[in-house]
Specification:
The chain contains 18 helices and 15 strands. By secondary structure, it is an alpha/beta fold. It has one domain: L-arginine/glycine Amidinotransferase, Chain A, CATH 3.75.10. About 0% of the residues have low confidence.
């Protein structure tokens, strides 16, 4: 039976803004308070989805969240009508209003961790929504994320959904941004690679000193248990605390994997050789041939990697078996990174081609090509069980493009978030979107 790794990209929401909310994310902080363009952001994301579909990859779309999150503001003591809640928050606690308006759910690499049916004990695809409890503006996402994923992957015969882990620091979980799967074929059993930044209980593991380590070992272990993964099919690796302090807030900012290949920076991990050996041994037992491509610090510094988002790229296997790297325009703009990539593809190695995409609106807020997609490996039967409304087609692309032009603003500043009309615009847009994607009622305003 044929299998696919489907990329479900996050559709950028109507309230996309540069709130500078993500401490430890250099791009997010450095572009704080700039004027954003939600319409351009959404169109850039859709263009990437369409391009991958045109290349022959199965591509899906994951809906954004309702923003501002009025219910979250009510839980913090603001009251009255929805408009009054927004106005009170703007007058009394603008940072909370900004947080409640964040369109950060666009980066669906953080939406959940996904284990394919070939790896799990019950033979179903398992999803665990990420609690994202390190940042308030992201911690409020998982209830809607769970409903949206449930509407996309609804058949309990094929799909299992788990609630987010306890929302405490010991179980900080940032989803697939710290999770990679290695396999010979997508439909075969593989090795799931969980990367953590710190341990909540074991002091033997060093922690960063400047920025927070968002993923704990304990959270990764809990997800592996929930998904029914075998010990022989799991490897845990630790991020280098020094690179976290340099702005590598997730592993997907310093490494990316696909199939049998790991593409990573020399300084990405602690105990690198031991970790690589374990990956090679465990994948080898499954008939795979683990391979790694290490980018030397002498050619690309960690700072260059963070500024260009070289590793926050999509590593894709084409029909002929060769690998393609999808990178943001910032890689081409960085002389050292671009020189390295040109040498990489010219060498005739594992990665044969690089394609560049303009994702400036997302990049300025700290998310590149890999942040914008959640990978789900599915066999033919499972793919047929996915809600067909969320699978990208040429007509759906045209419809969503028209929908964006109809509903999105082309400029948004912090002061605009205090306008109650923005909430009405967002709800009108999302109500129409759920009909386009055939999701049913998934948003609080549709349910309550």
């Amino acid at each position: 039976m044929k299998s696919y790794e489907v990329n479900f990209d996050g559709l950028v929401g109507p309230t996309h803004n540069y709130g500078g909310l993500s401490y430890g994310n250099v791009a997010s902080q450095s572009n704080s308070q700039q004027s954003s363009n939600p319409k351009e952001a959404a169109l850039q994301g859709l263009q990437k989805m369409k391009a991958l579909m045109d290349m022959g990859f199965v591509q899906g779309v994951l809906a954004p969240q309702e923003r501002p999150d009025v219910a979250a503001l009510r839980n913090l003591g603001f009251s009255g009508s929805d408009a009054q809640v927004i106005q009170q928050a703007a007058q009394q606690a603008m940072p909370l209003l900004v947080a409640s308006c964040s369109a950060s759910s666009m980066w669906v690499a953080n939406a959940a961790t996904v284990s394919p049916s070939a790896d799990t004990a019950d033979g179903r695809v398992h999803f665990t929504a990420a609690n994202l409890n390190c940042k308030y503006h992201r911690s409020i996402e998982h209830p809607t994320t769970s409903r949206v994923l449930g509407a996309m992957f609804a058949d309990p015969q094929h799909f299992a959904h788990h609630a987010a882990l306890p929302a405490v620091a010991q179980f900080g979980d940032e989803g697939a941004a710290n999770h990679t799967r290695f396999c010979r074929e997508y439909g075969e059993a593989g090795v799931e690679f969980f990367v953590f930044g710190r341990s909540a209980f074991d002091t033997r593991y060093p922690a960063p000193q400047k920025y927070p380590a968002r993923q704990t070992l304990e959270a990764s272990q809990a997800v592996a248990r929930l998904h029914g993964l075998k010990d022989d099919g799991v490897v845990y690796g630790q991020q280098n605390p020094a690179v976290i302090d340099a702005g590598v807030f997730h592993n997907d900012v310093i490494a990316v994997g696909n199939g049998e290949v790991l593409f990573y920076h020399e300084d990405a991990f602690l105990n690198t050789e031991q970790m690589l050996g374990e990956l090679q041994a465990k994948l080898g037992k499954l008939g795979g041939n683990f391979q790694s491509v290490c980018v030397p610090r002498a050619l690309v510094s960690v700072e260059d990697a963070v500024r260009s988002y070289l590793f926050n790229s999509q590593l894709l296997t084409r029909a002929d078996g060769s690998m393609l790297l999808i990178v943001p325009e910032e890689c081409r703009a960085n002389e050292r990174v671009w020189r390295y990539l040109q040498g990489l593809t010219a060498s005739g190695g594992l990665i044969r081609e690089v394609k560049v995409f303009d994702l400036k609106q997302s990049m300025q807020n700290g998310g590149g090509p890999a942040c914008l997609r959640l990978r789900v490996a599915l066999n033919e039967t499972e793919l047929a069980a996915v809600n067909p409304g969320v699978i990208m087609t040429a007509p759906l692309y045209d419809t969503l493009t028209q929908w964006v032009h109809k509903h999105y603003r082309d400029s948004l500043r912090e002061s605009d978030l205090a306008d109650p009309q923005l909430l009405l615009e967002c709800r009108t847009a999302l109500d129409e979107l759920t009909q386009i994607l055939k999701l049913g009622a998934v948003y609080p305003f549709q349910i309550n």
